[in-house]
């Protein structure tokens, strides 16, 4: 019986070591691709196009597509939203963990910090697309639904949500993108 227990422990240790090794390799891969923002997004866009082609050609899995769209919309809103929302009551300034957006003209400039950083946004969109693509190969996820209703509902939801987000951006005067950001050469001069 001791041999059986020892073999079980050895097998579980081996599996744990293999899992740890795979996690380290995956993390190393993520660390390597982090600086290549444009290429990461191109790869994710290609993945999304492949998924959409799969849905169009198979004529099914509209619920999976709708769920993916809602999830990506939710991630996009978190990407556009500041980490420290100026619309929240900021009377407890001592409790804040970091900088916030200026609300009045006489306040100093504070940098825009996203609620969801770009890398986590990309990673979540890519992971969700892979999961949705995987689900599109199983008929259990192909729930019959009249897809034009889902499309109209998603478009209305997108329009209402983005209108609200844009009003928030205008009200608190922040732009979540670096437009016309100065780039500096090696000598310290701007280009």
Automatic annotation (TrEMBL):
Record keyword Transmembrane present: yes
A cellular component term, taken from the record's GO annotations: endoplasmic reticulum
Keywords: Membrane, Transmembrane, Transmembrane helix
Subcellular location(s) of the protein: Membrane
Record's bilayer topology term: Multi-pass membrane protein
Pfam family, any one: Rer1
Transmembrane segments: 39-57, 63-81, 145-162
Signal peptide: none
GO BP annotation list: protein retention in ER lumen; retrograde vesicle-mediated transport, Golgi to endoplasmic reticulum
Keyword Transcription assigned: no
Function: Involved in the retrieval of endoplasmic reticulum membrane proteins from the early Golgi compartment.
Family per similarity comment: Belongs to the RER1 family.
Name of this protein: Protein RER1
UniProt organism field: Absidia glauca (Pin mould)
Organismal lineage: Eukaryota, Fungi, Fungi incertae sedis, Mucoromycota, Mucoromycotina
Gene: ABSGL_07999.1 scaffold 9429
């Amino acid at each position: 019986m001791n041999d059986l227990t020892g073999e079980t422990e050895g097998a579980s240790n081996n599996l744990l070591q293999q899992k740890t090794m795979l996690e380290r390799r995956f993390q190393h891969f993520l660390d390597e691709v982090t600086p290549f923002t444009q290429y990461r997004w191109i790869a994710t866009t290609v993945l999304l196009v492949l998924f959409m082609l799969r849905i169009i050609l198979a004529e099914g899995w509209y619920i999976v597509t709708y769920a993916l769209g809602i999830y990506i919309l939710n991630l996009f809103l978190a990407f556009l939203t500041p980490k420290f929302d100026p619309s929240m009551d900021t009377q407890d300034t001592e409790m804040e963990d970091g900088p916030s957006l200026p609300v009045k003209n006489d306040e100093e400039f504070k940098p825009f910090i996203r609620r969801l950083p770009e890398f986590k946004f990309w990673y979540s969109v890519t992971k969700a697309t892979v999961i949705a693509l995987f689900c599109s190969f199983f008929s259990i996820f192909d729930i019959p639904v009249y897809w034009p209703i889902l499309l109209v509902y998603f478009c209305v939801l997108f329009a209402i949500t983005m209108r609200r987000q844009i009003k928030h951006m205008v009200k608190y005067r922040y732009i979540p993108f670096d437009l016309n950001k100065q780039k500096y050469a090696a000598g310290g001069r701007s280009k």
